[in-house]
Please model this.
Amino acid sequence: MPVTELAGRQVHVNEEGFLTEFDEWDEELGKALAELIGIEMTEEHWKVIRFLRDDFKAEGETATTRRLATVGGFPVKEQFNLFPKKPGKKMSYIAGLPKPHGCV
Amino acid sequence: MLRLSISEKLVKNLVILGGGTAGTMAANKLRKKLSKTDWAITVVDQDDKHIYQPGLLLMPFGVYKPEELVKSRKRFLAKGIEVVTDTIDVVNAEANTVTLGSGKTLTYDYLIVATGTSPRPDQTPGMDGEEWHKSIFDFFTLEGAIALRNKLETWEGGKLVVHITEMPIKCPVAPLEFCFLADAYFEERGMRGKVDITFVTPLEGAFTKPVASAYLGNMLDDRHITVEPDFMIESIDDERKVMISMDEREIPFDLLVTVPLNMGADFVAKSKLGNDLNYIPVDKQTLLSKKFNNLFAIGDASDIPASKAGSVAHFSIDLFAENFVDHVEGKPMTELFDGHANCFIESGHGKGLLIDFNYDTEPLPGTYPLPAVGPFSLLKETRINHWGKLGFRWAYWNMLLPGRPMPVSSLMSMSGKRIPQTTK
Model:
């Protein structure tokens, strides 16, 4: 896996630029990743990202938009407002997690 | 009396919920492997109609009649399997019981859930309202496929939208095949110029995996079919005949052919066995429940990250039957499933493609099952692939369901496959 420099440090990413090591992430890095895709993080954004991180730790996989709505309590519409066009992909990118599957 | 009660105690009960592709294959394979004096096998299903589901895609275009696709479930279950026709109310996995709709209770030593996945148009506002089966259709139910066939016979043209609500769905290539077949159907009827076809998907492109997505995307372009990607539906305004996305894009239609949200059975939710779409979490290599050591979920009912397709059921159950016998004898399960799937893709005008893939390897070009010889070509349109699809219906009823071995490997093989230069 390639290594790239982000927020002043070396991190491992895949060919699409998603972080591959769960423990290399922190919120400073999340902010830098968000800037790369034109998203300015607010408290509302962080609530979603923190849920995704905690859920991944517990479940071993990235929550889908559906799970974020039913388990996390973030309506899908709100996910689209916060992370326009491709919420599933953008949220996981910022959270330093793999893209959610369900796409098979 | 004493002898009877001892022998009753010795007989173990295997209960299989669902007599579709996966449940029938598993029941027949296990009936051969498990001794009749030690094991009773019971299959529960709500009706006696086994539908050949791959045929539903072709029915709207007049290829099959309904009676060619439906047979008695009981006819395909081997002797020594008890069949119970009833609905399922709830499973109590702590107590090892299943309560049926009639109120009857079954006790099991081992439970196999094979109740599949079903389209749920009620989950999208406006989908199953006034326009359901008038201008909005599904095709993965017998009723939907028949209604759509009747509609297409008299339809005079306009905007045809083919749509996927949300992944995962039963047979992920079927909506694309529907586009190709519709293009050919209208061309053969001399009215292709009057039909505007749009393919609307929540995915980023035509398919889920990159090499096949690029190839299938080109096939859509060649046929002048527009793709609207990243479309997550919020609702349908059935008065205006418009689909509305979460990010407020609108797509008008005259005829909407949709794949509604797919969900596992309701009793799974009631029994607290499933995830948010009622699929049961299992180990993806053995299909054993992550929570209960005497419960398996097979076919579309599980949450394995593979296509919800008959081929996945088929390949996984070949291995599952071996594993089941080891597991009940307290031995480790060693036949590990790799997510192998293969699908014929009808492309219209008597041709088809074939794709072959697993959890880790995406569909690639090449030949199948033998290198160079084939006879089938992977990710390429040929007539032989189309005949393969039509011939498969015979193999399904006569080889697959009875549990007879098919002349292909259960695990995916790389022989015959080519990795294109562009893939990373």
